[in-house]
Design brief:
Helix content: 25-40%
Bound molecules: 2-acetamido-2-deoxy-6-O-phosphono-alpha-D-glucopyranose, zinc ion
CATH class of the largest domain: Alpha Beta
Radius of gyration: 23 Å
Number of helices: 18
CATH superfamily of the largest domain: Alpha-D-Glucose-1,6-Bisphosphate, subunit A, domain 3
Largest sheet: 5 strands, mixed
Length: about 550
Amino acid sequence: MAVNLRALYAFAREMYPKKNPNPIQYGTAGFRGDAKYLDSVMYRMGVLACLRSRFLDGKVIGVMITASHNPEPDNGVKLIDPQGEMLVGSWEEIATKLVNVSDKELEATVAGIIEDLGIDIGKKSNVYVGMDNRYHSPQLLKAVCDGVLSLKGNVKEFGIVTTPMMHFYVVAQNTSKAYGLPTEEGYYTKLITAFEKIRGTKLEKGNYKNKIVFDGANGVGARKMLQFLKRMNGSLNCEVFNKGEGKINHECGADFVKVQQKPSSGLPITEPNTRCVSVDGDADRVVYFFTDENGQFNLLDGDRIATLIADYLMDLVRKCGLDLNLGIVQTAYANGASTDYIVQKLKVPVACVPTGVKHLHHKAQEYDIGVYFEANGHGTIVFSAKAKEMIRKSAETNESSATLLNVIDVINETVGDAISDMLLIETILHSKGWDVKDWLNTYVDLPNLLLKVKVQDRNCITTTNAERTCVTPNGLQEGLDKIVANYQRGRSFVRPSGTEDVVRVYAEAASREDAELLAYEVAALVHKLAGGVGEVPTLPPKHNSHI
Ligand code: 16G
Ligand code: ZN
């Protein structure tokens, strides 16, 4: 099949001219930015997805249009590799190059990619595309489709979906449906069937009450949760709020709750200790929270979720009598108390990797059962092929193994999935007869704070040791070590953000006051040594903690 690359330029010039004069980079979560500049980015990502599929013998490549927890008017795009993983690093560079060339250079750049990688342009190409519910998403989706079509690839539109649903479809199709059916019904059916089998008919146990409040962040997760509930026949008593009447992620959702450490607005909670769950705009992150009878807000974040799941799975694996190793993967943002709990109480191996799902996912695949979560609530569990096979065999005779098989089916192993994670957490709390307080009582979080520092060029900060040690600029790590040494249980690190033009500062210490002082001392040091822009960060007089 001859593909006329000339058409690429004509299309680009007429329909999707490049408007953004500033270079953009394929970061930890793809391209993100103001939607008004993204038409040409989407078109070119359609082109790239089509090439990638051809490069991989026609395997399905996914394209998800979303800016996750960012507010509007942002939007974004990321590519999904055949096994449901994030786009491989070497193609991130190609993506960055392709998006930044001028319209005129497009044809030659694509020709160069085809030649360099020896892509057979006559091969089949299959691309799946989905989007979140931002108002500009449909127009951007059309641009992606046109990109695929301009190289004569096949494109299938899935409309409004969560990010993890898109990952699910890609894997389902590429595994010849062994993972599930690559349809919306296939996704619901797999998760709900497994969830209801484990839950049985006794819906309440011990302290566990079948009542949960769901904050949908005015994003796609709310719509999909309502679809789940329609099909669940009351097995989960869940009320959905922030269904889309307000702005996406605005004063609600998992990121707001985690960063601001307060409940989302729009939730009519009257009863203290009500179990609340918040997802982000594209429903790949989840955190729990509740306000107790003293009005105290309590957060159960990704670290809590990881420890709860690991504890439950270890117990289940023991009952199965199977020799399977389980490990937990965290990032530097994990609360020090959670890491202590994992090492001392759970006695499970724990690894620390750089921020971003791809790093966690790959590390987790080194275990038979790998549990990975970022503190922000992004994570899942992966089971090796060997583990699945052993569990499947054992399930013929062992009831715990049969339960574990269903647990695997509740989990969306392809990527963090807020709704699937929530169904698993509900399963575990139900099985333990726990409510949120029992869960919170497992350990006490160290007070912590996250700050942003604006600098001229955030890339002047480079790190090693899973982002826990600064390499450049000179003297920053030494200075940071000196400051930290003055604080009891003090820990701090700095890293350039992968999604915003800022440097992030994390600090934790034995008391809230100390965590705040430490964070501001480190932020001031970063400002001084890394070319800070504007005012030196200083602790606000009223100890207003969350910036
Ligand atoms: C992206 C990452 C998320 C990470 C966040 C950090 C994926 C799919 N998403 O949203 O895992 O926590 O970036 O943002 O990898 P930052 O670099 O701005 O701190
Ligand atoms: Zn997200």
